[in-house]
Write a structure and sequence with these properties.
This is Protein PhnA. By secondary structure, the chain is mainly β. The chain has 1 helix and 11 strands; from the N terminus they run E-E-E-H-E-E-E-E-E-E-E-E.
Length: 114
């Protein structure tokens, strides 16, 4: 019996082969044996603005499109500058505070780095 590597997600030793992929029965993670080493090197997520510039925590951004605030009649106008952003996981990947509106989450595709 050949020795299979443990699952990179949950470290389970009960992995099995399914064609060209390895499968973990405990967490249902699937991966190819050679891809595990390459994915460890680029584990960090990169968030880019509308023009492709990489964003980081603490950056200032400018809104490039009028954005309606859900559940309110307020609108974030184009050109609004947002300071000290925080990057988070999810669909709306920027967490920020906008003067006059309050705490909000924005999508990176509607901002540019200031």
């Amino acid at each position: 019996m050949s020795e299979l590597p443990p699952c990179p997600e949950c470290a389970s030793t009960f992995t099995y082969e399914d064609g060209t992929q390895l499968v973990c029965p405990e967490c249902a993670h699937e991966w190819t044996p050679g891809a595990v080493d390459a994915s460890d090197a680029s584990d960090e997520r990169v968030v880019k603005d509308a023009h492709g510039t990489v964003l980081a925590d603490g950056d200032s951004v400018t809104v490039i499109k009028d954005l309606k605030v859900k559940g309110s009649s307020l609108v974030v106008k184009v050109g609004t500058r947002v300071k000290n952003i925080r990057l988070v996981d999810g669909d709306h990947d920027i967490d920020c505070r906008i003067d006059g509106i309050g705490a909000m989450k924005l999508k990176s595709e509607f901002v540019k780095k200031a």
